[in-house]
Amino acid sequence: ADARSREGDSPYRSTVIGLRFADRDLLYRRIDLRVDLMLENGLLEETEDVLCLTQRGLDVANRVMADFLL
Question: What count of other Cβ atoms lies within 10 Å of the Cβ of residue 64?
């Protein structure tokens, strides 16, 4: 991480969570399946609804969709 991101005290409390998963290929297949199911169950439509709500929603939805489409 960039050293600047660690300067000073953060106003946020954070927790670091790690995964131990011996079979990374299986992990990625499970993640892919989960994303496929989310898409089948309306993720894109839900994202479009968020887009219509507020400019902030637009910003968040654009980041989600950009990650999905790229």
Answer: 15
